[in-house]
């Protein structure tokens, strides 16, 4: 006999009532329901998140009612393309119709073959770059196929796809009748549409039957697939005299294919946008990167990667400037330079940016600091704005940042007097007005005796206001050491899972907490020239290395890479630290930069050794 626990009974009784009910519901980001009349006459509606009106029925019942559900996907890449075209027209006077660009452009395929695809839609991950370098795409179909293949299921076929393209592996078909369907993908099944074509060419399926098969594969519907299996196999035996055993084997491949199949029309749309972004980057890299950074101005992680890419492209990113910057990132014509956008400077609001641009448009550039303070309304460009402009470098043309910061009170008093004089329309003793340049106020003079600010603090201003270090990275003098002794943070991905690796960089944030055992531990934000990562320092290690974890210290740590959370779910990559130390500038100076050794682009294989060797010899010559 067991004693009844009333609380346990109550929990189970409630659980039985809750079982099977919907815990919560969301709204599809791009789903739109279309009906011939007001939707409310067909389905109940509700006011969902952020004021969006949504149906109370989920997608299944909505379609069962006969309503049309469409997904309209919005992509920031379309805005990037549009902005690039606008910049190209303004800076270079060229009006490009992106829909008519040639799909066989050599410069674009050269960029793809080198893996220079940062910012290129769908093709910028580290793994995709690696495969593009191996594949060396030469036609649009290659790009479409890579978009479809580079996903968890079909990735297993990418090496086979590349080997077949380069003649390192024979292109084989299970039956000659499949060649017309699979020729463009070198005999590898990639798309749902290929299955449709095979079912019509080989099995005698009608268009409707072929589409039913496509839907069954796309939705992984085992009941429909089972119903079509016999018609598919027997149809191929009857129409093209295919071997039944071969067709059974092919059908098994199709059932596996259902787990990861991709719609070609979808892949082609994505492939076209990928190609268009690659084309613009190949031909107008400065305009493309300016548009890309404008799109990502509030995402500091992306911005850091993109500015690093500008360095790779020999494009210099200049700090903001009140005379040359616009709201967006702007190309400096003919100089391979991009000027930082004012909208991307924190604490400088849209109103202040508009006011600066208004003053510049009406009366030209600001020749002096007095001119800026006189012409830009102090109520809109306030103290916080001017302080941020100083710290970010936007007023560097007038004086040193430290000098301007030490004189901030003086600047604000001068601007305030100017504003009051303009508001009152005062006339001076000699008949001049506050609106011309002969007013009675003394010229602005700067006190040069204030404290100096060290470079590290100035760089922190940039980090705080621009999201990145722009004029110089604090790790610049440590870079050779870090290149030799640590793993670049931007390269850490799932391939490093559970591996013990060295990482190094700048301590940008330290969050100390008390663990369950009452001892101190810490979560540390570590950044290098391009990436960031969180270090987890458990109590035992933290007690030994506590003095290392000071903000702005440059450190070298070693630990296990892990992206697993407490419940086993995958999240951001972290390093579980097991040792750490500070790196001194003197130690860093003892390490010389690595020599850049250019490696051959193609490694010959035994299957095609003589031909590959010949190609390699020609390249090296």
Give an overview in words.
This protein is an alpha+beta fold and 621 residues long. 44% of the residues lie in helices and 12% in strands. The protein contains 25 helices and twelve strands. It has helices spanning 6-18, 59-64, 76-92, 106-113, 126-135, 140-149, 158-165, 179-182, 192-203, 207-218, 222-240, 244-257, 264-283, 285-295, 300-312, 350-363, 369-375, 383-392, 401-406, 408-424, 455-466, 479-485, 539-545, 585-589, 609-620; strands at residues 31-34, 45-47, 53-55, 68-71, 316-318, 330-332, 337-339, 500-514, 520-527, 532-537, 554-564, 570-582. The protein has a five-stranded mixed beta barrel with strand order 8-9-10-12-11. The chain has a three-stranded mixed beta sheet with strand order 5-7-6, with helices on one face. The longest helix has 20 residues, at 264-283. The radius of gyration is 32 Å and the shape is globular. The chain starts with 5 loop residues before the first helix and ends with a helix. 32% of the residues are buried. Residues 429-435 and 601-621 have low confidence and may be disordered.
């Amino acid at each position: 006999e067991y004693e009844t626990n009333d609380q346990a009974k109550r929990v189970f009784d409630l659980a039985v009532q809750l079982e099977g009910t919907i815990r919560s519901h969301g709204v599809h980001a791009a789903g739109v329901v279309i009906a011939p009349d007001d939707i409310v006459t067909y389905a109940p509606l509700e006011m969902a998140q952020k004021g969006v009106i949504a149906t109370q029925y989920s997608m299944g019942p909505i379609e069962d009612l006969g309503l049309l559900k469409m997904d309209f996907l919005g992509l920031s890449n379309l805005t990037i393309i549009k902005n690039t075209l606008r910049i190209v027209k303004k800076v270079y006077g060229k009006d490009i119709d992106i829909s008519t660009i040639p799909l066989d452009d050599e410069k674009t395929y050269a960029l793809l073959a080198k893996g220079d695809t940062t910012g290129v839609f769908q093709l910028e991950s580290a793994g995709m770059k690696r495969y593009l370098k191996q594949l060396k795409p030469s036609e649009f179909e290659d790009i479409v196929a890579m978009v479809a293949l580079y996903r968890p299921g079909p990735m297993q076929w990418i090496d086979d796809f590349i080997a077949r393209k380069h003649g390192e592996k024979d292109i084989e078909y299970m039956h000659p009748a499949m060649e017309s369907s699979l020729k463009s993908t070198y005999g590898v099944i990639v798309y749902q549409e290929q299955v449709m074509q095979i079912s019509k060419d080989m099995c005698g399926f009608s268009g409707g039957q072929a589409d039913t098969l496509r839907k069954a594969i796309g939705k992984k519907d085992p009941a429909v697939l089972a119903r079509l299996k016999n018609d598919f196999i027997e149809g191929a035996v009857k129409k093209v005299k295919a071997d039944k055993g071969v067709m059974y084997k092919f059908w098994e491949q199709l059932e596996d294919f259902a787990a990861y199949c991709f719609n070609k029309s979808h892949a082609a749309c994505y492939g076209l946008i990928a190609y268009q972004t690659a084309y613009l980057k190949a031909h107008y890299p400065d305009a493309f990167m300016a548009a890309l950074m404008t799109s990502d101005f509030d995402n500091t992680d992306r911005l850091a990667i993109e500015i690093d890419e500008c360095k790779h492209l020999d494009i210099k990113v200049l700090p903001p400037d009140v005379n040359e910057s616009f709201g967006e990132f702007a190309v400096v014509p003919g100089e391979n330079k991009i000027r930082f956008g004012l909208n991307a400077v924190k604490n400088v609001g849209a109103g202040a940016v508009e006011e600066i641009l208004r003053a510049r448009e009406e009366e030209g550039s600001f020749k002096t600091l007095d001119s800026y303070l006189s012409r830009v309304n102090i109520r809109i460009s306030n103290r916080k704005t001017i302080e941020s402009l100083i710290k970010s470098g936007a007023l560097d043309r007038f004086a040193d940042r430290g000098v301007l910061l030490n004189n901030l009170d003086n600047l604000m008093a001068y601007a305030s007097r100017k504003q009051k004089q303009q508001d009152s329309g005062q006339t001076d003793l000699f008949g001049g007005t506050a609106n011309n340049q002969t007013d009675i106020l003394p010229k602005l003079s700067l006190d040069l005796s204030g404290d100096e600010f060290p470079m590290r603090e100035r760089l922190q201003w940039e980090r705080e206001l621009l999201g990145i270090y722009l004029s110089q990275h604090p790790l610049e003098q440590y870079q050779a050491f870090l290149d030799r002794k640590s793993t670049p943070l931007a390269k850490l991905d799932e391939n490093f899972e559970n591996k013990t690796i060295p990482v190094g960089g700048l301590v940008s944030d330290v969050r100390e907490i008390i663990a369950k055992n009452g001892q101190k531990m810490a979560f540390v934000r570590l950044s290098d020239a391009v990436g960031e990562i969180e270090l987890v320092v458990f109590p035992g290690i933290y007690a030994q290395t506590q003095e290392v974890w000071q903000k702005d210290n440059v450190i070298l740590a070693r630990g296990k890479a892990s992206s697993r959370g407490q419940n086993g779910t995958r999240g951001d990559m972290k390093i579980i630290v097991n040792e750490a130390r500070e790196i001194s500038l003197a130690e860093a100076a003892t390490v010389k930069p690595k020599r850049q050794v250019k490696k051959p682009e193609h490694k010959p294989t035994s299957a095609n050794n003589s031909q590959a060797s010949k190609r390699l010899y020609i390249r090296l010559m």
